[in-house]
Each structure stands twice: as structure tokens, then as C-alpha cells.
Amino acid sequence: MTSPKTILAAHNLHPKKKFGQNFLHDPSSAERIVTLSKITAEDVVLEIGAGLGSLTIPAAKAAKKLYAVEKDGRLINLLKTEIFANRLSNVELIEKDIMKFDIKNMAENAGKKITVIGNLPYNLSSQIIIRLIQLRSVLVKAVFMFQKELAQRITAQPGRKDYGRLTVMLNYCTTIKKLADFEAHQFFPKPKVDSQLLEIGFPETIKYPADDEELLFRVIKGGFCQRRKTLRNALAGSEMDIDTKTAQNMLDEAGIDSSLRAEALTISQFVTLSNTFKRLQSL
Asked: Which domains, ranges and CATH numbers included, belong to the chain?
């Protein structure tokens, strides 16, 4: 496999910072990711950010069908060449922003739940994850490469400073498993930090189901919107449009100390808080 640096130089191209492009240049690392993803010949796979095809090729060889989504139009012809050179007929290359791509329709056309893979750009990772949470009914799992800082946020425990909105949303409806560490030198251009490969599973049942999931996510967002404030003041100052008296009442009814900060709450407490607020609203 030709290195990303050589390929880009040959076509007078440079990685774009706005796309968060850090290309995996070690073929054995790409093979390892596919192996750890446990992709089988029965799987339909969506790859977010195909880049130069380093992960696309081994993933397509393992899968039944692979949809490779790439936003950077400069790379499309290069990807087509790689796919043709490897004689792959099961890859559909899509030039599109993943945030505008109809994943649900793709899964419905495939006739089965899909597996998502990708080396996610840091600046879009949270948005992509939140979107996948909303679409999880058509997903089996997602296997993503994250910069280590974000991976630590995703796997953080209550009470830690890196425990936040994204952590709680994932704790609510997914399972998280660390698969491997990858060092910065395995990418081009070399990022400032190492990366981690995580598997996000989307189980059909939830341990602590909320009465109103949309409301739950609003409560979580509200709690963390001003994370240095107490829960009462954070909720009152959020988009939930409630005053401090209402916030205090809902916390009291839920049996949660209003002087705590959002980072201290477990997912079950957030669900209790959300369900309590819904019940109080209906009175």
C-alpha cells in the first residue's frame, strides 16, 4: 500500500484541517481494526470518512456490502482508483457530508441493521455520535477511532471532570468497549495525541428506560450547559425554560441533592430526574 503522504504529494494535495484529516498509513493497523471490528461476510457496513481508502479496502473485503461516505471531493477519484485496483464490486462510494446522509434509508434499503466504522475527525465526533444515538434502531454497533482525549470522555465515570453530556447519553443506550490503542505516528499528518479504538454497541433493551427520551436528553443537556453551576441553577439557566423554584422542586421530588453538579449524577439518576419532571408537568 502506497503511503498517504506519497499519494497526496503525487496529486499535489494536502490534508485539510477543517475536515480533521489524519490518514492511517500502516496497512497492518487497518487490518487490525477490521479484525477487531469482527466484520463478517454477512455484514452491511457504513464507513464514515473513507479518506484514501486505507480502511475501506480491508473492510470491504470482509463485508457483504460497504457504503463509503467521503465529504472531500478531491479524494473521490483516488478512492475509485483504489477500489478498482482491488477489484471490489461491493463498495458504493458516496460523496456527501455524513451529517446530511440518510443513514436510515440506507439501512432500510439494505434490509438489515448496519455496522458503522471510521476514523472520526475530532471536531465532528460528538455530533456524529449524537446522530447515531438518534438512529440506533437501524444500527448494530459502531467501531470508531477517537483521539485519546475524547475516548477518555466517552468512557469516563461519574464524578470525573471529563464526564459530560456525551458520556451520559452513551451510558443511557449503548455499551462501550475499548478495543485498542494506536500511537500518533501511525497517522499522517501525525496528530499531537494518540488515539483509541472503541466499540459502541446499540442493544435492543435499555437498563433504565426513560418515559420520554427526548426530554431525558434535554435534561442531560441542561444539566451540563453550565457545568460549574449546581444542578438547580444549571437547569434553571438552560433551554428547558424553567425557573429556580421549578428546578428545585423537580430535584426534591426526584430525591436528588440540588447542590450537586451534573457530573455527579449517574444515568439512573438522570432518568429519575427526567421522569419526575415529566410527571410534574402533567399535574
From this structure: 4-201 (3.40.50.150), 213-282 (1.10.8.100)
